Amino acid sequence: MEILLDGKKIRDRIESKVKKRIEESGIKPKLLAISAGKNEANRVYLKVKREACRRVGIEFIHIDCGDAEERDILDEITRGARDDSVDGILVQLPLPNNIDVSKIMESIPAEKDVDGFNPENFGRVMVGKPVFIPCTPKGIMTLLDSYNIEVRGKDVVIINHSPLIGKPLSLLLLLRDATVTVCHIMTKDIERYTKMADILIVGAGKPGLIGEKMVKEGATVIDVGINRVGGKIVGDVLFDEVREKVYAISPVPGGVGPMTVASLLENTLKAAERRRCLKKG
Ligand code: GUN
């Protein structure tokens, strides 16, 4: 029987730890979430983040900039940056096309950048001294560690090269001495790579992309895809056929998604502690 990488179970454990730490320390962390544009998925993600914050005792403030200009979003970030009661700032992605995402990310002060998208935090991952690690890669690493899945010396194939997932995740895996291959939309013959992976991490946004024939026997498969198909949420991996062949597999929903949110809670608590000088590193 394959191991089910149960993100909800690990999320619950992380939430208990964060909640306990908040209760014991008396800190009341505050997270500011900024969004813009009309994106149904973002509305759902922000609701999930708000509920998770409520469960652990983090105050969650959401500013919806609607169809505002880049300048208005930058102004909201500046307000949050100057507000001493705000510990973390996140800008929900994607933003509308007229907005320069890198300019937005650069404007979030590094010490409040709980998503880890600011170039300083990104660079810290690069040099092996991370402070805030982007939430999805952090969640994936925690999920692997929670099930004692060793990455050192393993062939890891990631299908995703975005700044949110593939780029930071490849660095985190390299820091842990994995051999990492990053595939993307321009990769010729993806199957050549997926078949050799000890650990396959897929976030292509293509339902049914990974079938049983594309996976090595005994591999670990992490599905980062979130696709709506016929009113149901599915990943990029054909779960029912791939599970027969693997050592471990994460489901969708209930795999990486809850881990991303749990990582945001951890990062927000860390920001609050660092700002109060309760935590080093
Ligand atoms: N959109 C998809 N994933 C993320 C994330 O981790 N953080 C933010 N801010 N937006 C996202």
SSE blueprint:
Elements: E1 3-4, H1 7-25, E2 30-35, H2 40-56, E3 59-64, H3 70-82, E4 88-91, H4 101-107, H5 119-126, H6 135-146, E5 155-159, H7 166-175, E6 179-183, H8 190-194, E7 199-202, E8 220-223, E9 227-229, E10 232-234, H9 239-242, E11 248-249, H10 256-275
Parallel strand pairs: 1-11, 2-3, 2-4, 5-6, 5-7, 7-8, 8-11
Antiparallel strand pairs: 9-10
Helix pairs in contact: 1-10, 2-10, 6-7, 6-10
This protein binds guanine.
Features:
10 helices; alpha/beta; 281 residues; globular; binds guanine; three-stranded parallel sheet; six-stranded parallel sheet
Radius of gyration: 19 Å
Instruction: Determine the N-to-C terminus distance.
Output: 40 Å
The profile of the biggest β sheet is:
6 strands, parallel
What is the string of helix and strand elements?
A: EHEHEHEHHHEHEHEEEEHEH
Tally of helical segments: 10
Average residue-wise pLDDT = 97
The order of strands across the largest sheet is 1-11-8-7-5-6
| Structural class label | alpha/beta
Name the hetero compounds present: guanine
Q: How many individual β-strands?
A: 11
**Unreliable stretches covering 5 or more consecutive residues:** none
Residue share in β-strands: 15-25%
Percent of residues in helices: 40-55%
| CA-based shape | globular
Description:
The chain is an alpha/beta fold and 281 residues long. The chain is built from 10 helices and 11 strands. The protein has helices at 7-25, 40-56, 70-82, 101-107, 119-126, 135-146, 166-175, 190-194, 239-242, 256-275, and strands at residues 3-4, 30-35, 59-64, 88-91, 155-159, 179-183, 199-202, 220-223, 227-229, 232-234, 248-249. It has a 6-stranded parallel β-sheet. α7 (166-175) links the parallel β5 and β6. α1 (7-25) packs parallel to α10 (256-275), α6 (135-146) crosses α7 and α6 packs across α10 (256-275). 42% of the residues are buried. The mean pLDDT is 97. The chain binds guanine. Guanine (GUN) binds at residues 90-93, 115, 135-136, 164, 260.
